[in-house]
Amino acid sequence: MSMTPETPLPPKGKGIELRPIPMLIFGSRWLQLPLYVGLIVAQGVYVVLFLKELWHLFAHSFDFSEQQIMLAVLGLIDVVMISNLLVMVIVGGYETFVSRLNLQGHPDEPEWLSHVNASVLKIKLAMAIIGISSIHLLRTFIEAGGLASGKTGYTETGVMWQTIIHTIFILSAIGIAFVDRLSNIASEEAKHSASH
Predict the structure, then answer these.
(1) How many CB atoms sit inside 10 A of residue 56's CB?
(2) Count of CB atoms within 10 A of residue 49's CB?
(3) SS3 assignment, position 148
(4) CA-based nearest residue to 126, from 87, 88, 173
(5) DSSP code at position 99
(6) Which of 33, 58, 83, 104 is deepest in the core (most CB within 10 A)?
């Protein structure tokens, strides 16, 4: 019985040498880097907007009615939630599609980043969009009290469509979560059958 030498595996931590075309295709992921840097710039713009809105609220704190203060605070919450969405896209997207951040053991590592993948990121983004839509809808409902008097920029049709779109967001998120659950069950069954 002749013994054939096994092909040695590359040492741990060393990369596998790719042919030119696969290397080009794999390296093309770095084209996304300017997009994530652009989102960081957009986050900076949202910080400026937040400070501007906060100053506006502070300057008019004695002039505004309770409803106006509530609407201003909801505007601040809206900016924060959009900023959270940006962080999820920047950090999660970079980690999933570009390169590892190597944050294991870092005290500030986000809890959700340890198990992030494309499916988890999709569900988290859907939930963040629903949260943002909820804030917009709440602001609309607060201002919709003036529909009869005509003191608001909203119409009944506009409020109805905003509610319908928010409901579609919720149904879409439920659909994404359901499909993701089905794919997880299918992959678990495949692993289980392969082990037997």
Answers:
(1) 14
(2) 15
(3) coil
(4) 173
(5) -
(6) 83
Tokens of 138: 């709440």
Task: Please state, in angstroms and rounded to a whole number, the distance separating the CA atoms of residues 31 and 156.
Answer: 45
Residue 26 and residue 76 in contact, taking contact as beta carbons nearer than 8 Å: no
Which conformational region is residue 83 in: left (phi greater than 0), alpha (psi within -120 to 50 degrees), or beta? alpha
The mean per-residue pLDDT over the stretch 167-193 comes to 83
- Enter the DSSP assignment of 106: -
**Res 49: pLDDT:** 93
pLDDT category of residue 1 using cuts at 50, 70 and 90 = very low
**pLDDT (mean) for 143-167:** 77
How far apart, in whole angstroms, are the C-alpha atoms of residue 174 and residue 26? 33
Q: How far apart are CA 175 and CA 164, in angstroms?
A: 16
Look-up: residue for tokens 């469509």?
Answer: 161
Q: Provide the mean pLDDT of the chain.
A: 81
Tell me the mean pLDDT in the region 15-29.
80
What tokens were used for 82? 């959009």
Q: Which amino acid is at 74?
A: L
Count of beta carbons in the 10 Å neighbourhood of residue 128: 19
> pLDDT tens for residues 126-152?
888 888 888 888 888 887 766 666 666
